[in-house]
Amino acid sequence: MSETELLVLLRALDDPERLGEPLHYDRAATGFAFSRLVSRLEAEFGAPCDSERDTQDSSEYGRIQVPADATVCGTRIVVCVSKFGSVAEVCADNPGAFYGTDEACAVGALDPADLATVERALAELGYVSVPEELLESDYEGPSALGQFAVRPTWWTRFFGTVW
Q: What is the pLDDT of residue 163?
């Protein structure tokens, strides 16, 4: 999806009345899909992946960590999954460690083939991967996020603590 299409999607998912989870949030279905993603990444990288799920007080559902020793560059890959619309983010090391996957690849912290493996798994399992650079841009939606962050971003809205 283009950046414009991704912003349209994020705006469509943004419900100012439901900051923590969407109106028809299905916790069991989200957990099942997340488990499938964990299993897929473990198979693709040939290593167990640590995961945290059902994050409390956050619009993020959970995170998966592909271990550093299973990646070409020796940097772990973190996949964050939102409770909203199967939105996901891929980053090297941790969210915010690099200004997106392009920078991480440019400095040799993330192998493009490893990134493609994760992106393919996300797409094939129905997730929409949103680049960290876009998520870190200023939030321009209807939700009142100023109480949660000095500079609200799309990341704040779909992955951050929201109450």
A: 61
Six-digit token string for 146: 């100023």
> Per residue, what are the HEC states of the chain?
CCHHHHHHHHHHHCCCCCCCCCCCCCHHHHHHHHHHHHHHHHHHHCCCCEEECCCCCECEEEEEEECHHHCCCCCCEEEEEECCCCEEEEEECCCCCCCHHHHHHHCCCCCHHHHHHHHHHHHHCCCEECCHHHHCCECCCCCCCCCCCCCCEHHHHHHCECC
Residue 35 has pLDDT above 90, yes or no: yes
The residue-averaged pLDDT of 35-49 equals 98
pLDDT, position 147: 72
